[in-house]
Amino acid sequence: TETLHRKYNIINWLRLSRANISKWVMLLIKTSHEVKKEVIIRVMHGKNELGTVRADVVVDDEYVVEMKVKGKINPQTEVQLDKYMRLLGKKKGFIINIGLTDYEIKEVIRL
To answer: 93: buried, middle or exposed (CB in 10 Å: 19+, 13-18, 0-12)?
Structure first.
């Protein structure tokens, strides 16, 4: 199967421009992909709600995409994405980091 960055052409839309994140999301919407932005996730313990967290983007109800603007992707960001994927019941996700001079894309798959 194609990975999200190939299937949705992320790399071409993200080259060195933070503004292109919005353009990529709009491209997905225009090409009939279901895109949910700023998805609120309830954190539960049994029947009690402990609070909420927010995933940046969910594409086609399959991929959770966390977008960052940092120097590098760090382990805390991976833990954060894994938590969102677990809470949403998704197995595939991406961290897209737009740094000051470069970009990084990391695919995360939960087994």
So the answer is: buried
pLDDT tens-digit readout, 17-63: 455 666 677 777 777 778 888 899 999 999 999 999 999 889 889 88
Q: Which residue has the tokens 């009939």?
A: 32
Nearest one of 4, 6, 20, 23 to 63, comparing CA atoms: 4
Which pTM value belongs to this model?
Answer: 0.74
CA distance 102 to 96: 11
Could you report the per-residue pLDDT of 47-57, keeping only the tens digit for each? 999 999 999 88
Calpha distance 61→89 (Å, rounded): 10
Residues 6 or more apart whose CB falls under 8 angstroms from that of 57 comprise 25, 35, 36, 37, 39, 64, 65, 67
- Which are the contacts of 73, defined by CB distance < 8 A and separation ≥ 6? 95, 97, 104, 106
